[in-house]
C-alpha cells in the first residue's frame, strides 16, 4: 500500500471510493459527483491524501485548515489555527486493515508541522468510527440528532454549543431555547427528549469530537 498526496487524475476513483464506503454507513446521504474544491473564503489550505494498491485508490482523507479569522471564532474549539476533518473513506473490500490509521498518521504529522492546534471531527452513529476518533484523542464536546420527519413548527434560531451538557444550544432570536432547526432538508435536534415532537421516518445521532493536536499521538 502506498499513501501519497491526492492528484486531480484521482478524481473518479476518489468519488467511487467515497461512495462505496459511505453507501451502507450512517453517511449514506453524503454523495458527490466530483471532489469539492477548497472553500477559500474560510479555509487557507487542505491536507489531501489517498491510499492506493496497484494503482487503485482504496482510501482517502481530507482535512481543511481554517484561516486565522475563522479559527479564532470557531464555535466548537476556537484557537489560532483550527482544522476540520472533511473526508475519510476506505473502500469496503479493504476496511479493517489499518488504512484509516495509516492515512491519519501522515495527516497528523502535517497538522503538527503546520501549527494546527485543534481538529474538529463530525460523525454519526457507528461504533467503529467513534472508537477510532476516540483512539485518536478526540474529546466528545457535543451531540445532536438528525431527523427526517415533520415537526410541529420551524422557528428562526441562533446556533451555539452548551459545553457543560455536551450538546448544541439552540435559541430563537429573542434568546429563548428552541429544540431544533432545519439543515439541508434534515432537522437538527439538540435534546433527545425533543424527538417526541416529530413524526419520525429516520433518525441518526451525530457526534462532534475535538482533537488537541500535539498532545495525542
From TrEMBL:
<protein>
    <submittedName>
        <fullName>GNAT family N-acetyltransferase</fullName>
        <ecNumber>2.3.-.-</ecNumber>
    </submittedName>
</protein>
<feature type="domain" description="N-acetyltransferase">
    <location>
        <begin position="1"/>
        <end position="164"/>
    </location>
</feature>
<dbReference type="InterPro" id="IPR016181">
    <property type="entry name" value="Acyl_CoA_acyltransferase"/>
</dbReference>
<dbReference type="InterPro" id="IPR000182">
    <property type="entry name" value="GNAT_dom"/>
</dbReference>
<dbReference type="InterPro" id="IPR050832">
    <property type="entry name" value="Bact_Acetyltransf"/>
</dbReference>
<dbReference type="Pfam" id="PF00583">
    <property type="entry name" value="Acetyltransf_1"/>
</dbReference>
<keyword id="KW-0012">Acyltransferase</keyword>
<dbReference type="GO" id="GO:0016746">
    <property type="term" value="F:acyltransferase activity"/>
</dbReference>
<keyword id="KW-0808">Transferase</keyword>
Amino acid at each position: 500500500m502506498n499513501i501519497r498526496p491526492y492528484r486531480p487524475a484521482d478524481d473518479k476513483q476518489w468519488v467511487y471510493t467515497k461512495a462505496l464506503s459511505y453507501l451502507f454507513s450512517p453517511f449514506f446521504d453524503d454523495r458527490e459527483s466530483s471532489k469539492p474544491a477548497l472553500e477559500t473564503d474560510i479555509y487557507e489550505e487542505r491536507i489531501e491524501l489517498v491510499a492506493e494498491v496497484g494503482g487503485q485508490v482504496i482510501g482517502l482523507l481530507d482535512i481543511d485548515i481554517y484561516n486565522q479569522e475563522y479559527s479564532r471564532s470557531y464555535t466548537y474549539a476556537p484557537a489560532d489555527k483550527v482544522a476540520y476533518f472533511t473526508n475519510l473513506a476506505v473502500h469496503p473490500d479493504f476496511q479493517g486493515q489499518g488504512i484509516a490509521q495509516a492515512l491519519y498518521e501522515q495527516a497528523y504529522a502535517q497538522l503538527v508541522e503546520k501549527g494546527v492546534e485543534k481538529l474538529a471531527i463530525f460523525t454519526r452513529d457507528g461504533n467503529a468510527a467513534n472508537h477510532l476518533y476516540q483512539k485518536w484523542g478526540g474529546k466528545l464536546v457535543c451531540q445532536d440528532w438528525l431527523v427526517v420527519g415533520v415537526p410541529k413548527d420551524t422557528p428562526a434560531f441562533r446556533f451555539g454549543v452548551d459545553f457543560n451538557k455536551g450538546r448544541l444550544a439552540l435559541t430563537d432570536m429573542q434568546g429563548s431555547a428552541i429544540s431544533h432547526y432545519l439543515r439541508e432538508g434534515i432537522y437538527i435536534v439538540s435534546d433527545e427528549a425533543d424527538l417526541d415532537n416529530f413524526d419520525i421516518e429516520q433518525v441518526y445521532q451525530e457526534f462532534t469530537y475535538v482533537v488537541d493536536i500535539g498532545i495525542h499521538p
